[in-house]
Amino acid sequence: MIRYTVDGSDPTIDSLVYKKFKIYGKTTVKAIVFCDDGSHSDVVTASYALGQCADPMFSLADGSEFEHSNQEVSIAWNNDGVLRYTLDGSEPTAESPIYEGPFSFSESVVVKAKVFSDDFFDSSVVTASLTRVWVNVATPVIDASSSFTGSKTKVSISCATEGAVVRYTLNGNDPNSHSTKYTGPFYVTDSCTVKAYAAMPDYLNSEVATFAIEKVWVIGDTMGKPDHEFTTSGDGDKAFYRVVDASAPSGEAMHSGDIGNSVTYGMFARTVLSTTVTGPGTASFSWRASCEDDVPDYEWDHGEFAVDGVVKAYISGEMDWTNVSVVVMGTGEHTLTWTYLKDDVESEGEDCIWVGGFGWESAEPYTHTTEVPVPYAWLTAHDPDVVDEYEAYEASAKKTAVNGRKVWECYVVGLDPQEMDEFKISAFPMKADGTPDLDGLTFDPPKSQWNVPGARAVVYGAATLGGEWKAVEGATATEKAAMRFFKVVVELP
């Protein structure tokens, strides 16, 4: 007699007697034969189902690598049965978490998935080993001149990894999270080593970029005018040279060349320092002498200052530092020269002159302005100092115009006269040095011309804001205003 079970238990003498039967889902059938003499066969087992669940599929293939936190993975299956998974490398069971949609992780992981069903055979276990690979932020690129002359040079730093924070040092030390944050181009005024690195969440820090910048001395440094060009020459290649002089205006000075008495009788040896300026204006400097003292009717060792070859100032004997101011008339370029002349015989003192503390104040009527707004991109490309240095605006306040008035100018961002009916300043406070106090300005109903007691201000380009100045279509008034970049010129009494 064959007896059987369909609940997974072993059949006994009391189990159902076999006859044909139907199953309607996944079933495990166990059967045994009992003989009349009390003996029985072994239990045999067979499992039946309506089919087998298809294996699930991962959106990332087994062995894939990923670079960032919160890496997402999804699992697809044919929705027969229940999909369960594990993240610790263990085999999924009927008690493992049920897959309810894409999930994310940030470290290397072994994902295993299996479909369980009451009607179909379970799927195979599918595995995806996923490895986190850490990526470095791109190394910053330092854009600067390796050497420069004058008062300063511009340094820009960029990083190809969008959103990365760049920090830098100028003293040669490697930067860290406490170092200066890079927010835009800056200037250095002396030799230095720029080092920069970039950091960003979910990345390894970049390598440190290094760039050495050398400040090359020029005569303008000693003369107190680093950005002004000077040249020097002399008989026998005895040109002016730099010396440390605590009594000089800046602690150093240009010393006339050591030409000596090596000249023909009745002639002068000379050493010359020169520069050019664009007039009209006023040249100022300091000098001192230690040489023979000229007397009337004789021309011995002495120093001369000349404008376009015409001597304007003279020095000889033992003279301490003396300030000289010379008005230079006429427009166009003028040549200024300081010359030490040596006769062919005697010497006294140190046989030289010293020059320092040069200054030039232009007397041009006004700072040049454009009739229409100048695009910000053009200014940064052609005149970055205008954009980067507010001091340049205030410095222009100290220029004297032909009409005897002071001139001040300022580039303004974010005001939009085109959106306003009137434009004027109702209060115009001044600083102690005679320059306008921008922070103290208050505005009334605006107007294109400012009428302030004692001052006249003009907005250049106020009536022509348009074309390339228009914001994208649909921009708000505030967004449009932020795109404006134009000039205000103020004449002060």
Mind explaining what this structure looks like?
By secondary structure, this protein is mainly beta. The chain folds into 5 domains: 2-48, no CATH class; 57-132, Immunoglobulin-like (Sandwich); 141-215, Sandwich (Immunoglobulin-like); 221-362, Galactose-binding domain-like (Jelly Rolls); 376-492, no CATH class. It has 5 helices and 34 strands. It has helices at residues 219-223, 376-382, 384-388, 391-396, 477-482; strands at 2-5, 16-17, 27-33, 44-48, 57-58, 65-66, 71-73, 75-76, 82-86, 103-105, 109-116, 126-132, 141-143, 147-148, 153-158, 165-169, 180-181, 186-188, 192-199, 209-215, 230-234, 241-244, 252-255, 269-290, 302-307, 310-315, 318-342, 352-362, 406-413, 425-427, 442-443, 449-452, 455-460, 485-492. A hairpin with a 2-residue loop joins β25 and β26 (310-315). The longest helix has 7 residues, at 376-382. The protein is rod-shaped, with a radius of gyration of 44 Å. It starts with a strand and ends with a strand. Mean pLDDT is 79; it is low at 366-430, 441-472 and 481-486.
**Treating each run of at least 4 consecutive H or I residues as one helix, how many helices?**
5
Report the uncertain regions: 366-430, 441-472, 481-486
How far apart the termini lie comes to 127 Å
In the CATH scheme, what's the topology name of the largest domain?
A: Jelly Rolls
Task: Give the overall pLDDT as a whole number.
Answer: 79
What is the domain total for the residues?
5
Per the principal axes of the C-alpha atoms, what is the gross shape? Answer: rod-shaped
